[in-house]
Protein backbone atom coordinates (compact mmCIF):
# COMPACT_ATOMS: atom_id res chain seq x y z
CA UNK A 1 0.00 0.00 0.00
CA UNK A 2 2.94 2.34 0.58
CA UNK A 3 3.73 2.19 -3.13
CA UNK A 4 0.14 3.18 -4.01
CA UNK A 5 -0.01 5.98 -1.44
CA UNK A 6 3.35 7.30 -2.65
CA UNK A 7 2.01 7.80 -6.17
CA UNK A 8 -1.46 8.84 -5.01
CA UNK A 9 0.02 11.67 -2.95
CA UNK A 10 0.95 13.46 -6.19
CA UNK A 11 -2.71 13.98 -7.10
CA UNK A 12 -4.08 15.78 -4.03
CA UNK A 13 -6.37 17.99 -6.12
CA UNK A 14 -8.19 15.02 -7.61
CA UNK A 15 -8.23 13.28 -4.23
CA UNK A 16 -10.01 16.26 -2.72
CA UNK A 17 -12.57 16.33 -5.54
CA UNK A 18 -12.96 12.56 -5.18
CA UNK A 19 -13.73 13.05 -1.48
CA UNK A 20 -16.31 15.72 -2.36
CA UNK A 21 -17.96 13.26 -4.76
CA UNK A 22 -17.91 10.55 -2.09
CA UNK A 23 -19.56 12.79 0.52
CA UNK A 24 -22.26 14.06 -1.83
CA UNK A 25 -23.03 10.56 -3.10
CA UNK A 26 -23.22 9.11 0.42
CA UNK A 27 -25.48 11.89 1.73
CA UNK A 28 -27.79 11.58 -1.25
CA UNK A 29 -28.04 7.79 -1.08
CA UNK A 30 -29.00 7.93 2.59
CA UNK A 31 -31.02 11.15 2.28
CA UNK A 32 -33.45 9.72 -0.24
CA UNK A 33 -34.86 6.95 2.04
CA UNK A 34 -35.10 9.47 4.91
CA UNK A 35 -37.12 11.89 2.76
CA UNK A 36 -39.19 9.00 1.43
CA UNK A 37 -40.00 7.88 4.97
CA UNK A 38 -41.23 11.37 5.85
CA UNK A 39 -43.30 11.48 2.64
CA UNK A 40 -45.01 8.18 3.55
CA UNK A 41 -45.57 8.99 7.24
CA UNK A 42 -46.69 12.64 6.88
CA UNK A 43 -48.05 12.70 3.34
CA UNK A 44 -49.28 9.35 2.06
CA UNK A 45 -50.66 8.18 5.41
CA UNK A 46 -52.38 11.55 6.09
CA UNK A 47 -53.41 12.31 2.49
CA UNK A 48 -51.59 15.69 2.46
CA UNK A 49 -50.90 16.18 -1.27
CA UNK A 50 -49.04 19.49 -0.86
CA UNK A 51 -46.58 17.81 1.49
CA UNK A 52 -46.14 14.96 -1.03
CA UNK A 53 -45.42 17.44 -3.88
CA UNK A 54 -43.00 19.41 -1.75
CA UNK A 55 -41.07 16.31 -0.67
CA UNK A 56 -41.20 14.97 -4.26
CA UNK A 57 -39.47 18.13 -5.50
CA UNK A 58 -36.89 17.77 -2.77
CA UNK A 59 -36.32 14.14 -3.85
CA UNK A 60 -35.72 15.31 -7.43
CA UNK A 61 -33.14 17.90 -6.34
CA UNK A 62 -31.37 15.35 -4.14
CA UNK A 63 -31.32 12.82 -7.02
CA UNK A 64 -29.72 15.41 -9.35
CA UNK A 65 -27.10 16.22 -6.70
CA UNK A 66 -26.43 12.48 -6.33
CA UNK A 67 -25.97 12.05 -10.08
CA UNK A 68 -23.47 14.94 -10.18
CA UNK A 69 -21.62 13.51 -7.18
CA UNK A 70 -21.49 10.08 -8.82
CA UNK A 71 -20.09 11.58 -12.06
CA UNK A 72 -17.45 13.54 -10.12
CA UNK A 73 -16.53 10.41 -8.16
CA UNK A 74 -16.16 8.30 -11.31
CA UNK A 75 -14.17 10.98 -13.14
CA UNK A 76 -11.70 11.57 -10.30
CA UNK A 77 -11.15 7.89 -9.55
CA UNK A 78 -10.49 7.20 -13.24
CA UNK A 79 -8.08 10.14 -13.50
CA UNK A 80 -6.11 9.11 -10.42
CA UNK A 81 -5.95 5.37 -11.17
CA UNK A 82 -4.83 5.83 -14.79
CA UNK A 83 -2.31 8.55 -13.87
CA UNK A 84 -0.81 6.37 -11.12
CA UNK A 85 -0.48 3.43 -13.53
CA UNK A 86 1.15 5.68 -16.13
CA UNK A 87 3.64 6.98 -13.55
CA UNK A 88 4.45 3.47 -12.31
CA UNK A 89 5.10 2.22 -15.84
CA UNK A 90 7.29 5.23 -16.64
CA UNK A 91 9.30 4.76 -13.44
CA UNK A 92 9.71 1.01 -13.96
CA UNK A 93 10.80 1.53 -17.58
CA UNK A 94 13.22 4.28 -16.55
CA UNK A 95 14.63 2.06 -13.81
CA UNK A 96 15.08 -0.91 -16.14
CA UNK A 97 16.98 1.35 -18.56
CA UNK A 98 19.59 1.86 -15.82
CA UNK A 99 20.03 -1.87 -15.16
CA UNK A 100 23.25 -3.63 -16.02
CA UNK A 101 23.14 -7.12 -17.55
CA UNK A 102 23.36 -8.54 -14.00
CA UNK A 103 20.04 -7.00 -12.94
CA UNK A 104 18.45 -7.94 -16.27
CA UNK A 105 19.44 -11.56 -15.69
CA UNK A 106 18.21 -11.38 -12.10
CA UNK A 107 14.63 -10.54 -13.13
CA UNK A 108 14.47 -11.86 -16.71
CA UNK A 109 13.09 -9.97 -19.69
CA UNK A 110 9.71 -11.72 -19.61
CA UNK A 111 9.16 -10.98 -15.93
CA UNK A 112 10.05 -7.31 -16.42
CA UNK A 113 7.49 -7.03 -19.23
CA UNK A 114 4.79 -8.59 -17.04
CA UNK A 115 5.68 -6.32 -14.13
CA UNK A 116 5.52 -3.24 -16.36
CA UNK A 117 2.20 -4.15 -17.99
CA UNK A 118 0.13 -6.67 -16.06
CA UNK A 119 1.21 -5.86 -12.50
CA UNK A 120 0.72 -2.15 -13.11
CA UNK A 121 -2.75 -2.89 -14.51
CA UNK A 122 -3.65 -4.85 -11.37
CA UNK A 123 -2.78 -1.76 -9.33
CA UNK A 124 -4.87 0.42 -11.64
CA UNK A 125 -7.94 -1.77 -11.12
CA UNK A 126 -7.44 -1.85 -7.36
CA UNK A 127 -6.93 1.93 -7.06
CA UNK A 128 -10.06 2.56 -9.12
CA UNK A 129 -12.14 0.31 -6.85
CA UNK A 130 -10.40 1.71 -3.78
CA UNK A 131 -11.30 5.30 -4.62
CA UNK A 132 -14.85 4.48 -5.66
CA UNK A 133 -15.70 2.18 -2.75
CA UNK A 134 -13.12 2.16 0.04
CA UNK A 135 -13.52 5.90 0.63
CA UNK A 136 -17.29 5.65 0.22
CA UNK A 137 -18.09 2.57 2.27
CA UNK A 138 -16.80 3.71 5.70
CA UNK A 139 -18.94 6.83 5.42
CA UNK A 140 -21.95 4.85 4.20
CA UNK A 141 -21.56 2.28 6.97
CA UNK A 142 -21.21 4.97 9.65
CA UNK A 143 -24.22 6.99 8.47
CA UNK A 144 -26.31 3.87 7.82
CA UNK A 145 -25.74 2.47 11.30
CA UNK A 146 -26.42 5.85 12.87
CA UNK A 147 -29.75 6.09 11.05
CA UNK A 148 -30.72 2.47 11.74
CA UNK A 149 -30.13 2.91 15.48
CA UNK A 150 -32.06 6.18 15.37
CA UNK A 151 -34.95 4.35 13.70
CA UNK A 152 -35.00 1.15 15.78
CA UNK A 153 -32.38 -0.19 18.19
CA UNK A 154 -34.00 -3.62 18.26
CA UNK A 155 -33.87 -4.06 14.49
CA UNK A 156 -30.28 -2.77 14.40
CA UNK A 157 -29.17 -5.71 16.57
CA UNK A 158 -29.96 -8.05 13.66
CA UNK A 159 -27.42 -6.25 11.43
CA UNK A 160 -24.75 -6.21 14.13
CA UNK A 161 -25.10 -9.99 14.47
CA UNK A 162 -24.34 -10.60 10.77
CA UNK A 163 -21.38 -8.25 10.30
CA UNK A 164 -18.79 -10.25 12.31
CA UNK A 165 -19.58 -13.35 10.22
CA UNK A 166 -19.00 -11.41 6.98
CA UNK A 167 -15.73 -9.80 8.18
CA UNK A 168 -14.28 -13.08 9.50
CA UNK A 169 -15.11 -14.79 6.20
CA UNK A 170 -13.41 -12.05 4.19
CA UNK A 171 -10.26 -12.16 6.34
CA UNK A 172 -10.12 -15.94 5.81
CA UNK A 173 -10.44 -15.49 2.02
CA UNK A 174 -7.75 -12.76 2.03
CA UNK A 175 -5.30 -14.97 3.88
CA UNK A 176 -5.75 -17.83 1.43
CA UNK A 177 -5.73 -15.65 -1.71
CA UNK A 178 -2.30 -13.99 -1.32
CA UNK A 179 -0.01 -17.05 -1.83
CA UNK A 180 -2.24 -18.23 -4.69
CA UNK A 181 -1.96 -14.79 -6.34
CA UNK A 182 1.84 -14.93 -5.99
CA UNK A 183 1.96 -18.28 -7.80
CA UNK A 184 -0.49 -16.99 -10.41
CA UNK A 185 1.83 -14.09 -11.32
CA UNK A 186 4.85 -16.41 -11.42
CA UNK A 187 3.01 -18.67 -13.85
CA UNK A 188 2.18 -15.61 -15.96
CA UNK A 189 5.90 -14.77 -16.07
CA UNK A 190 6.66 -18.32 -17.17
CA UNK A 191 3.96 -18.29 -19.86
CA UNK A 192 5.25 -14.98 -21.22
CA UNK A 193 8.81 -16.33 -21.29
CA UNK A 194 7.76 -19.43 -23.25
CA UNK A 195 5.79 -17.25 -25.68
CA UNK A 196 8.80 -14.99 -26.30
CA UNK A 197 11.11 -17.96 -26.81
CA UNK A 198 8.64 -19.59 -29.17
CA UNK A 199 8.05 -16.49 -31.31
CA UNK A 200 11.76 -15.59 -31.40
CA UNK A 201 12.89 -19.12 -32.23
CA UNK A 202 10.02 -20.11 -34.52
CA UNK A 203 12.38 -21.03 -37.38
CA UNK A 204 14.46 -23.33 -35.19
CA UNK A 205 11.32 -24.96 -33.79
CA UNK A 206 9.97 -25.66 -37.27
CA UNK A 207 13.34 -26.78 -38.58
CA UNK A 208 13.52 -29.42 -35.82
CA UNK A 209 9.82 -30.24 -36.26
CA UNK A 210 9.18 -29.58 -32.57
CA UNK A 211 5.89 -27.71 -32.86
CA UNK A 212 4.01 -30.31 -30.84
CA UNK A 213 6.61 -30.23 -28.04
CA UNK A 214 6.37 -26.42 -27.78
CA UNK A 215 2.58 -26.60 -27.80
CA UNK A 216 2.67 -29.06 -24.88
CA UNK A 217 5.16 -26.86 -23.02
CA UNK A 218 2.98 -23.78 -23.44
CA UNK A 219 -0.18 -25.71 -22.61
CA UNK A 220 1.35 -26.98 -19.37
CA UNK A 221 2.27 -23.44 -18.33
CA UNK A 222 -1.10 -22.08 -19.46
CA UNK A 223 -2.95 -24.80 -17.56
CA UNK A 224 -0.95 -23.95 -14.44
CA UNK A 225 -1.86 -20.27 -14.76
CA UNK A 226 -5.51 -21.13 -15.45
CA UNK A 227 -5.57 -23.41 -12.40
CA UNK A 228 -4.35 -20.71 -10.03
CA UNK A 229 -6.67 -18.16 -11.68
CA UNK A 230 -9.65 -20.43 -11.09
CA UNK A 231 -8.74 -20.75 -7.42
CA UNK A 232 -8.54 -16.96 -7.06
CA UNK A 233 -11.81 -16.38 -8.91
CA UNK A 234 -13.58 -19.10 -6.93
CA UNK A 235 -12.52 -17.47 -3.68
CA UNK A 236 -13.64 -14.04 -4.90
CA UNK A 237 -16.96 -15.32 -6.23
CA UNK A 238 -17.63 -17.20 -3.00
CA UNK A 239 -18.04 -13.92 -1.12
CA UNK A 240 -21.04 -12.63 -3.12
CA UNK A 241 -23.51 -15.54 -2.71
CA UNK A 242 -22.60 -15.86 0.97
CA UNK A 243 -23.14 -12.13 1.44
CA UNK A 244 -26.52 -12.06 -0.30
CA UNK A 245 -27.65 -15.11 1.64
CA UNK A 246 -26.78 -13.42 4.93
CA UNK A 247 -28.39 -10.14 3.80
CA UNK A 248 -31.63 -11.84 2.75
CA UNK A 249 -31.66 -13.81 5.98
CA UNK A 250 -31.19 -10.60 7.98
CA UNK A 251 -33.97 -8.81 6.04
CA UNK A 252 -36.31 -11.78 6.66
CA UNK A 253 -35.66 -11.54 10.40
CA UNK A 254 -36.06 -7.74 10.29
CA UNK A 255 -39.49 -7.99 8.59
CA UNK A 256 -40.65 -10.59 11.08
CA UNK A 257 -39.67 -8.37 14.03
CA UNK A 258 -40.90 -5.18 12.29
CA UNK A 259 -44.34 -6.74 11.70
CA UNK A 260 -44.78 -7.19 15.41
CA UNK A 261 -43.54 -3.66 16.11
CA UNK A 262 -45.93 -2.10 13.56
CA UNK A 263 -48.80 -4.13 14.97
CA UNK A 264 -47.91 -2.87 18.44
CA UNK A 265 -47.80 0.73 17.12
CA UNK A 266 -44.12 1.32 18.03
CA UNK A 267 -42.92 1.48 14.37
CA UNK A 268 -44.37 3.28 11.36
CA UNK A 269 -44.54 1.89 7.80
CA UNK A 270 -42.41 4.73 6.42
CA UNK A 271 -39.73 4.05 9.03
CA UNK A 272 -39.66 0.38 7.97
CA UNK A 273 -39.19 1.38 4.30
CA UNK A 274 -36.36 3.73 5.26
CA UNK A 275 -34.86 1.12 7.60
CA UNK A 276 -34.81 -1.42 4.78
CA UNK A 277 -32.82 1.02 2.63
CA UNK A 278 -30.44 1.75 5.51
CA UNK A 279 -29.87 -1.97 5.99
CA UNK A 280 -29.22 -2.47 2.29
CA UNK A 281 -26.71 0.40 2.17
CA UNK A 282 -24.99 -0.73 5.36
CA UNK A 283 -24.56 -4.33 4.23
CA UNK A 284 -23.91 -3.54 0.58
CA UNK A 285 -21.22 -1.05 1.64
CA UNK A 286 -19.74 -3.76 3.83
CA UNK A 287 -19.69 -6.12 0.86
CA UNK A 288 -17.99 -3.50 -1.31
CA UNK A 289 -15.38 -2.97 1.37
CA UNK A 290 -14.91 -6.72 1.57
CA UNK A 291 -14.41 -6.77 -2.23
CA UNK A 292 -11.52 -4.35 -1.77
CA UNK A 293 -10.06 -6.66 0.88
CA UNK A 294 -10.43 -9.65 -1.44
CA UNK A 295 -8.68 -7.76 -4.26
CA UNK A 296 -5.90 -6.62 -1.94
CA UNK A 297 -3.79 -9.85 -1.87
CA UNK A 298 -3.37 -9.92 -5.66
CA UNK A 299 -2.62 -6.19 -5.71
CA UNK A 300 -0.15 -6.58 -2.85
CA UNK A 301 1.70 -9.24 -4.85
CA UNK A 302 1.83 -6.96 -7.92
CA UNK A 303 2.91 -3.95 -5.86
CA UNK A 304 5.65 -6.02 -4.21
CA UNK A 305 6.93 -7.18 -7.60
CA UNK A 306 7.02 -3.59 -8.88
CA UNK A 307 8.69 -2.41 -5.68
CA UNK A 308 11.39 -5.06 -6.17
CA UNK A 309 12.26 -3.48 -9.52
CA UNK A 310 12.16 0.11 -8.24
CA UNK A 311 14.25 -0.73 -5.16
CA UNK A 312 16.94 -2.59 -7.10
CA UNK A 313 20.05 -0.51 -7.62
CA UNK A 314 22.28 -1.20 -10.58
CA UNK A 315 25.79 -2.31 -9.72
CA UNK A 316 26.94 -0.04 -12.58
CA UNK A 317 26.36 3.61 -11.73
CA UNK A 318 28.09 6.96 -11.61
CA UNK A 319 30.42 7.49 -8.69
CA UNK A 320 29.23 10.16 -6.27
CA UNK A 321 32.44 12.14 -6.72
CA UNK A 322 32.42 12.06 -10.54
CA UNK A 323 32.53 15.45 -12.24
CA UNK A 324 31.98 15.85 -15.98
CA UNK A 325 35.15 15.77 -18.04
CA UNK A 326 35.30 16.89 -21.64
CA UNK A 327 38.93 16.55 -22.62
CA UNK A 328 39.58 15.61 -26.23
CA UNK A 329 41.65 12.66 -27.36
CA UNK A 330 44.76 14.26 -28.80
CA UNK A 331 47.46 11.64 -29.04
CA UNK A 332 49.73 12.55 -26.16
CA UNK A 333 51.52 9.79 -24.35
CA UNK A 334 48.83 9.48 -21.67
CA UNK A 335 45.92 9.47 -24.14
CA UNK A 336 44.30 6.27 -25.26
CA UNK A 337 42.74 3.24 -23.58
CA UNK A 338 44.70 1.04 -21.21
CA UNK A 339 43.87 -2.24 -19.47
CA UNK A 340 46.07 -2.51 -16.41
CA UNK A 341 46.14 -6.02 -14.86
CA UNK A 342 42.39 -6.43 -15.25
CA UNK A 343 40.65 -9.42 -13.68
CA UNK A 344 36.93 -9.95 -13.96
CA UNK A 345 34.47 -12.34 -12.31
CA UNK A 346 30.77 -12.23 -13.17
CA UNK A 347 28.61 -11.12 -10.19
CA UNK A 348 27.00 -14.55 -9.95
CA UNK A 349 30.16 -16.45 -10.89
CA UNK A 350 33.01 -17.98 -8.93
CA UNK A 351 35.83 -18.33 -11.44
CA UNK A 352 37.50 -15.39 -13.15
CA UNK A 353 36.58 -15.01 -16.82
CA UNK A 354 39.46 -12.59 -17.43
CA UNK A 355 42.74 -12.96 -15.57
CA UNK A 356 45.40 -10.26 -15.30
CA UNK A 357 44.79 -8.76 -18.75
CA UNK A 358 46.99 -5.82 -19.79
CA UNK A 359 47.28 -3.96 -23.09
CA UNK A 360 47.12 -0.45 -24.50
CA UNK A 361 45.64 1.20 -27.61
CA UNK A 362 46.34 4.74 -28.81
CA UNK A 363 44.24 7.06 -30.99
CA UNK A 364 44.62 5.99 -34.62
CA UNK A 365 45.52 2.41 -33.69
CA UNK A 366 43.54 -0.76 -34.28
CA UNK A 367 43.73 -3.58 -31.77
CA UNK A 368 42.12 -6.96 -32.37
CA UNK A 369 41.13 -9.83 -30.08
CA UNK A 370 41.01 -13.44 -31.07
CA UNK A 371 40.76 -16.75 -29.29
CA UNK A 372 38.70 -19.87 -28.98
CA UNK A 373 35.03 -19.82 -27.98
CA UNK A 374 34.69 -18.89 -24.31
CA UNK A 375 38.13 -17.31 -24.08
CA UNK A 376 36.67 -14.00 -22.81
CA UNK A 377 36.78 -11.79 -25.92
CA UNK A 378 33.25 -10.40 -25.74
CA UNK A 379 33.46 -10.11 -21.96
CA UNK A 380 36.59 -7.99 -22.33
CA UNK A 381 35.04 -5.42 -24.65
CA UNK A 382 31.85 -5.31 -22.54
CA UNK A 383 34.02 -3.75 -19.83
CA UNK A 384 34.80 -0.72 -22.03
CA UNK A 385 31.30 0.87 -22.03
CA UNK A 386 30.96 -0.34 -18.41
CA UNK A 387 28.29 -2.94 -18.99
CA UNK A 388 30.24 -4.55 -16.14
CA UNK A 389 32.93 -3.17 -13.83
CA UNK A 390 36.28 -4.86 -13.33
CA UNK A 391 36.78 -7.06 -10.28
CA UNK A 392 40.38 -5.98 -9.86
CA UNK A 393 42.87 -3.93 -11.83
CA UNK A 394 41.98 -0.78 -13.71
CA UNK A 395 40.84 0.42 -17.12
CA UNK A 396 41.95 3.96 -17.95
CA UNK A 397 40.86 6.30 -20.71
CA UNK A 398 43.22 9.25 -21.26
CA UNK A 399 44.88 8.44 -17.94
CA UNK A 400 41.60 8.42 -16.00
CA UNK A 401 39.82 5.40 -14.56
CA UNK A 402 36.63 4.64 -16.48
CA UNK A 403 34.71 4.88 -13.21
CA UNK A 404 35.77 8.54 -12.96
CA UNK A 405 33.65 9.34 -16.01
CA UNK A 406 29.89 9.61 -15.92
CA UNK A 407 28.20 6.75 -17.78
CA UNK A 408 26.62 9.19 -20.21
CA UNK A 409 29.91 10.89 -20.99
CA UNK A 410 31.81 7.62 -21.36
CA UNK A 411 29.25 5.99 -23.64
CA UNK A 412 29.00 9.14 -25.77
CA UNK A 413 32.61 8.47 -26.76
CA UNK A 414 31.96 4.89 -27.88
CA UNK A 415 30.51 3.44 -31.06
CA UNK A 416 29.50 -0.09 -30.06
CA UNK A 417 28.58 -2.68 -32.68
CA UNK A 418 27.33 -5.80 -30.87
CA UNK A 419 27.85 -9.39 -31.94
CA UNK A 420 24.16 -9.75 -32.78
CA UNK A 421 23.02 -6.85 -34.95
CA UNK A 422 20.00 -5.32 -33.26
CA UNK A 423 17.74 -3.05 -35.32
CA UNK A 424 14.69 -1.28 -33.96
CA UNK A 425 11.29 -1.19 -35.62
CA UNK A 426 10.95 2.03 -37.62
CA UNK A 427 12.76 3.35 -40.68
CA UNK A 428 16.37 2.95 -41.74
CA UNK A 429 16.79 6.69 -41.17
CA UNK A 430 15.69 6.43 -37.53
CA UNK A 431 17.99 3.48 -36.90
CA UNK A 432 21.05 5.15 -38.44
CA UNK A 433 20.47 8.40 -36.54
CA UNK A 434 19.94 6.55 -33.25
CA UNK A 435 23.22 7.82 -31.82
CA UNK A 436 23.04 11.26 -33.47
CA UNK A 437 19.48 12.50 -33.79
CA UNK A 438 20.42 15.60 -35.81
CA UNK A 439 22.42 13.69 -38.47
CA UNK A 440 21.81 14.89 -42.03
CA UNK A 441 21.00 12.61 -44.97
CA UNK A 442 24.49 13.20 -46.34
CA UNK A 443 26.03 11.95 -43.07
CA UNK A 444 23.80 8.88 -43.19
CA UNK A 445 24.74 8.10 -46.80
CA UNK A 446 28.43 8.64 -46.01
CA UNK A 447 28.21 6.11 -43.18
CA UNK A 448 26.36 3.67 -45.44
CA UNK A 449 29.06 3.96 -48.13
CA UNK A 450 31.76 3.17 -45.57
CA UNK A 451 29.74 0.25 -44.18
CA UNK A 452 29.12 -1.10 -47.72
CA UNK A 453 25.37 -0.66 -47.26
CA UNK A 454 24.73 2.22 -49.63
CA UNK A 455 23.72 0.13 -52.64
CA UNK A 456 21.10 -2.05 -50.99
CA UNK A 457 19.57 0.96 -49.19
CA UNK A 458 19.24 3.22 -52.25
CA UNK A 459 17.82 0.29 -54.21
CA UNK A 460 14.97 0.05 -51.70
CA UNK A 461 11.75 1.65 -52.95
CA UNK A 462 11.67 4.17 -50.06
CA UNK A 463 15.44 4.51 -49.53
CA UNK A 464 16.21 5.80 -46.03
CA UNK A 465 12.51 5.77 -45.23
CA UNK A 466 12.23 2.02 -45.77
CA UNK A 467 10.46 0.47 -42.80
CA UNK A 468 12.38 -2.06 -40.73
CA UNK A 469 10.13 -4.73 -39.25
CA UNK A 470 10.47 -6.00 -35.70
CA UNK A 471 13.97 -7.39 -35.18
CA UNK A 472 14.95 -6.40 -38.73
CA UNK A 473 13.49 -9.63 -40.12
CA UNK A 474 13.05 -8.08 -43.60
CA UNK A 475 16.85 -7.80 -43.98
CA UNK A 476 19.54 -10.46 -44.19
CA UNK A 477 22.14 -11.00 -41.47
CA UNK A 478 24.84 -9.27 -43.50
CA UNK A 479 22.59 -6.29 -44.26
CA UNK A 480 21.70 -5.92 -40.60
CA UNK A 481 25.37 -5.99 -39.65
CA UNK A 482 26.21 -3.29 -42.18
CA UNK A 483 23.34 -1.10 -40.96
CA UNK A 484 24.54 -1.63 -37.40
CA UNK A 485 28.08 -0.60 -38.38
CA UNK A 486 26.75 2.47 -40.23
CA UNK A 487 24.79 3.47 -37.13
CA UNK A 488 28.02 3.58 -35.13
CA UNK A 489 29.87 5.45 -37.88
CA UNK A 490 27.26 8.22 -37.98
CA UNK A 491 28.12 8.99 -34.37
CA UNK A 492 31.83 9.59 -35.14
CA UNK A 493 32.95 8.40 -31.70
CA UNK A 494 36.43 8.35 -30.16
CA UNK A 495 36.36 4.57 -29.70
CA UNK A 496 34.98 1.96 -32.10
CA UNK A 497 34.18 -1.45 -30.64
CA UNK A 498 33.39 -4.21 -33.17
CA UNK A 499 32.23 -7.36 -31.39
CA UNK A 500 32.56 -9.95 -34.14
CA UNK A 501 30.59 -7.52 -36.31
CA UNK A 502 31.87 -8.86 -39.66
CA UNK A 503 30.88 -12.51 -39.16
CA UNK A 504 27.88 -12.38 -41.56
CA UNK A 505 29.81 -10.66 -44.34
CA UNK A 506 31.41 -12.45 -47.25
CA UNK A 507 35.20 -12.13 -47.62
CA UNK A 508 35.01 -9.56 -50.42
CA UNK A 509 32.61 -7.28 -48.54
CA UNK A 510 34.66 -7.75 -45.36
CA UNK A 511 37.83 -6.62 -47.15
CA UNK A 512 36.11 -3.60 -48.77
CA UNK A 513 34.59 -2.55 -45.48
CA UNK A 514 37.89 -2.76 -43.57
CA UNK A 515 39.62 -0.76 -46.28
CA UNK A 516 36.89 1.91 -46.17
CA UNK A 517 37.08 2.06 -42.38
CA UNK A 518 40.76 3.04 -42.23
CA UNK A 519 40.43 6.72 -43.27
CA UNK A 520 37.23 7.13 -41.24
CA UNK A 521 38.74 5.76 -38.01
CA UNK A 522 42.26 7.15 -38.40
CA UNK A 523 41.87 9.47 -35.37
CA UNK A 524 39.91 7.01 -33.25
CA UNK A 525 40.77 3.89 -31.30
CA UNK A 526 39.43 0.78 -33.00
CA UNK A 527 38.89 -2.51 -31.17
CA UNK A 528 37.84 -5.60 -33.10
CA UNK A 529 36.76 -9.01 -31.85
CA UNK A 530 36.85 -11.55 -34.65
CA UNK A 531 36.91 -15.26 -35.38
CA UNK A 532 38.44 -14.86 -38.84
CA UNK A 533 42.17 -14.24 -39.04
CA UNK A 534 41.72 -12.46 -42.38
CA UNK A 535 39.64 -9.78 -40.63
CA UNK A 536 42.37 -8.82 -38.16
CA UNK A 537 45.69 -9.56 -39.90
CA UNK A 538 46.18 -5.84 -40.69
CA UNK A 539 45.55 -4.70 -37.09
CA UNK A 540 48.34 -2.76 -35.37
CA UNK A 541 48.23 -5.16 -32.43
CA UNK A 542 46.48 -8.49 -31.84
CA UNK A 543 45.65 -9.85 -28.38
CA UNK A 544 45.32 -13.62 -28.23
CA UNK A 545 43.14 -14.88 -25.38
CA UNK A 546 42.95 -18.39 -24.01
CA UNK A 547 40.78 -19.22 -20.97
CA UNK A 548 40.69 -15.54 -20.02
CA UNK A 549 44.47 -15.03 -20.14
CA UNK A 550 46.58 -13.11 -22.65
CA UNK A 551 48.78 -15.75 -24.30
CA UNK A 552 49.90 -13.64 -27.22
CA UNK A 553 50.35 -9.93 -28.03
CA UNK A 554 51.80 -8.48 -31.21
CA UNK A 555 51.29 -8.18 -34.94
CA UNK A 556 49.99 -10.96 -37.17
CA UNK A 557 53.47 -11.96 -38.35
CA UNK A 558 54.97 -11.78 -34.87
CA UNK A 559 52.26 -14.00 -33.43
CA UNK A 560 52.63 -16.63 -36.15
CA UNK A 561 56.19 -17.13 -34.92
CA UNK A 562 55.74 -16.59 -31.16
CA UNK A 563 52.23 -17.81 -30.24
CA UNK A 564 51.22 -21.43 -30.81
CA UNK A 565 47.53 -20.72 -30.03
CA UNK A 566 47.39 -18.05 -32.71
CA UNK A 567 49.28 -20.24 -35.18
CA UNK A 568 46.74 -23.05 -34.68
CA UNK A 569 43.85 -20.66 -35.34
CA UNK A 570 45.58 -19.26 -38.43
CA UNK A 571 46.51 -22.72 -39.72
CA UNK A 572 42.86 -23.80 -39.53
CA UNK A 573 41.81 -20.88 -41.76
CA UNK A 574 44.74 -20.07 -44.06
CA UNK A 575 46.43 -22.22 -46.67
CA UNK A 576 49.98 -23.49 -46.17
CA UNK A 577 51.24 -21.07 -48.83
CA UNK A 578 49.60 -18.11 -47.04
CA UNK A 579 51.13 -19.16 -43.74
CA UNK A 580 54.61 -19.47 -45.25
CA UNK A 581 54.24 -16.13 -47.03
CA UNK A 582 53.08 -14.33 -43.89
CA UNK A 583 55.77 -15.95 -41.75
Secondary-structure content class: alpha/beta
Write out the strand line-up for the largest beta sheet, numbering strands in chain order: 6-9-10-3-11-12
Oligomer: single chain
Over the alpha carbons, how many angstroms does the gyration radius reach?
36 Å
Low-pLDDT runs: 329-333
Distance between the termini: 71 Å
* Biggest beta sheet summary: 6 strands, mixed
Mean pLDDT: 84
Number of helices, counting only DSSP H or I runs of 4 residues or more: 21
Shape: elongated
Helix percentage: 55-70%
Got a strand count?
12
Strand content: 5-15%
Could you please describe the fold and organization of this structure?
The protein is α/β, with parallel strands linked by helices and 583 residues long. The protein is 64% helix and 10% strand. The chain is built from 21 helices and 12 strands. A 6-stranded mixed β-sheet has the order 6-9-10-3-11-12. Strands 2-1-4-5 form a 4-stranded antiparallel β-sheet, with no helix packed on it. It has a two-stranded antiparallel sheet with strand order 7-8. Helix 2 packs parallel to helix 6 (136-151) and helix 3 (49-97) runs antiparallel to helix 5 (109-134). The longest helix has 54 residues, at 211-264. The radius of gyration is 36 Å and the shape is elongated.
Amino acid sequence: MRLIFHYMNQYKKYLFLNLVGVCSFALVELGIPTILAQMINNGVMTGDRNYIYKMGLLLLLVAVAGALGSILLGYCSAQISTAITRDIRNDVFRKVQSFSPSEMNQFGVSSLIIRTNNDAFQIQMFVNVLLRTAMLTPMMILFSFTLTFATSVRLSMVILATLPVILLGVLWVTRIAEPISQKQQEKLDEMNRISRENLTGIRVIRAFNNDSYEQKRFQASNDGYAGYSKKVFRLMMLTQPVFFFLMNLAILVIFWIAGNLIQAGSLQVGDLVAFQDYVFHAMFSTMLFCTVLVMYPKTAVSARRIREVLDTESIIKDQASVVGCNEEIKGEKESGLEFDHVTFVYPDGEEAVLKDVSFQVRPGETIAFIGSTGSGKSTLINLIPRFYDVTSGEIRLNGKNLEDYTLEELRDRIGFIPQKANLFSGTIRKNLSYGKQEASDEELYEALRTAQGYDFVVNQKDGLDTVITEGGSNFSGGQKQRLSIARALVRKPDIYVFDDSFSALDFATDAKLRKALKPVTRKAMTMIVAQRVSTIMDADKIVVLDSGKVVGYGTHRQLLKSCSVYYEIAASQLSEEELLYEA
